[in-house]
Amino acid sequence: MSTILDLIGNTPLVEAQQLNKNKNVKLYFKLEGQNPGGSVKDRPAYNMIKSAIERGDIDKNTKLIEATSGNTGIALALIANLYQLNIELVMPENATKERVQTMRAYGAKVTLTPSDRGIEAARDYADNKVAHEGYVGLNQFANDDNWKAHYKTTGPEIWNDTEHKVTHFVSSMGTTGTIMGTSTFLKEKNSDIKIVGVQPSDNASIPGIRKWPKEYLPKIFNPKKVDQVIEVSEEEARAMTIRLAKEEGVFAGMSSGGATAAALKLIETLEEGVVVSIVCDRGDRYLSSDLFEE
């Protein structure tokens, strides 16, 4: 008998039909919105909570807290509730209402911090509660169980589903867990596989993709595991998110549009290859924003 947790991972890999114009390159989308919580963050959320319980780091009396821009919070709310854990999730007040409502629907307490300071303010709030009020933080930005989730699942799935033919992996970089774990696995299998990270261009605001100030740089990030970084503008990410829906039938958020824009930039430089790009989540949690308004 399976549970909802058994549905995490093993997400579909589908080939682009319209956007890729290079006939010598295959472009595949890894559809992480098919996870039960609707995003790639189900993987690290499950691994962080399960591993912490197994080590005895947390139990039903623990007061958990985590700063999030959205998807990790939804995943943590879902999984924490299934384990009967109390969790407070902290995020900027400009987060879409779908995110807040979903977290609360799963039973989490949600605290909103001033939007003008972004996710950094949420992280500071959570860190203060951990330091002074007896809370325990999962700290996705410094937690090895974050990237190890992708080492154990995302990487092997891509390797197997491309029949070991993947040549390039493209991923947006937020906490960097996805790219760190997947890179570690794929490089062990074939050191020639190129790992491409996606960052916003200066002053671009793209939910789920960050260019962190040095003091907030995720501790799990190792630049040696990324072969190339491609920057995308907010306009490019928005436009590609809309094209993904209309031309590929892939309804996703802006970070996925950014990753796809970067993947297409990459493909223009390739003579041949098999490119896999992460589609981080589903577009329905952005409907109250202006993302899909043209």
Automatic annotation (TrEMBL):
EC number of this enzyme: 2.5.1.47
Domain of life: Bacteria
Keyword terms, alphabetized: Transferase
Protein name: Cysteine synthase B
Classification lineage: Bacteria, Pseudomonadati, Bacteroidota, Flavobacteriia, Flavobacteriales
